[in-house]
Amino acid sequence: MLQVPQLDARRSRLPLRGSAPAVGSTTGTEAGTVTAVADLLSSELTWVESVWDALVPPGGAGPLAGGPGDLPAWLRSLVLGGGKRLRPRMCHWGFVAAGGEMGTPAHEDVVRAAAALETLHLFALVHDDVMDQSVERRGAAAAHVVAARRHREVDGHGDPDRFGQNIAILLGDLAHSEADRLVHTLPLALRDYWYELNLELIVGQRADLTGAAGRRTDLAHAEAVAALKSGAYTIGRPLQLGALAAGATAAQRDALERFGSHLGRAFAWRDDVLGVWGDPAVTGKPSGDDLREGKTTLIWVLGADRLTGEAAAAMARVGTTDARDGDVALLQQALADAGVRQEVEDRIRAETDRAEQILLGSPFTAEGVVGLRDIARTISWRSA
Question: What is the CATH number of the domain that holds 119?
Fold first, then answer.
């Protein structure tokens, strides 16, 4: 019988950490959570690699050898290769706002949930790039592009693009599998919440695809997709996972839900702005990608109501085989001229202000209020 490394359910529980923040640092506890998440991910991915290596048949990674490496090594490089760690940070501040303390078993649960969110996020990014046929992610070639290129380099059998897409799907599946594995030792309330989060993300992606196919331009649909795909699993759900781990009161969870709802909209709409006018050198994705794909965002809905003439014709063409090389640039300018960008910026500011208003007189800890206010401003005015 094949022997694979065994891992006790308690093996990757983190050792208790001291509760004092780093000397001279105002974000020591947040930084401590982010560091603990990276440590747990590194430990877990080492285990995944060891089990994988014991299972792989002779011949290894084939066309992937010498390139990104086999899937676990590739997953490690992507998960630990950087990023803003927004989801772990939101978990942390939900935990602190509800009275959670560093260096406790409850904080270990937060770290585990946050690590799972990071691998779930990678799953979503890799699959999203395949669905959208995006060629770049975080300033580098998307996973399906990397795999296809390696297939060509070694003169592999079959269609390289199809191979690249299939490998990327498997890479995303591995990330999702690891995310589910990370949460399996969490308390039941956190696990139930986790599965709801997963369903929410998939519902949002499906709605995004069918909305684009149906050329929907109604505001309700655009707002629902933004909330499901982006705002909820990046802002609202991580906040609640942290609060649940801390044993939050009903009043704390209600206030966090309202705070997360407003901030989630601001986050999603900032994503919309960056998807149309973002600097590729900063965002890591080509400028205007959302327009090129005809995504039903808030910007798309507002544009459909305001643009006329050649700009309206360009809107009808993008995302189809009739698209022209200059359509995206034309729409970027036309949308700005029509006041769409300014309206979205105004909406972002209004939602951020509403989120901050909830913090006034809230049932959160003083430290949590400061942390939530600071991260809200960071999220709403980010450039990537």
Answer: 1.10.600.10
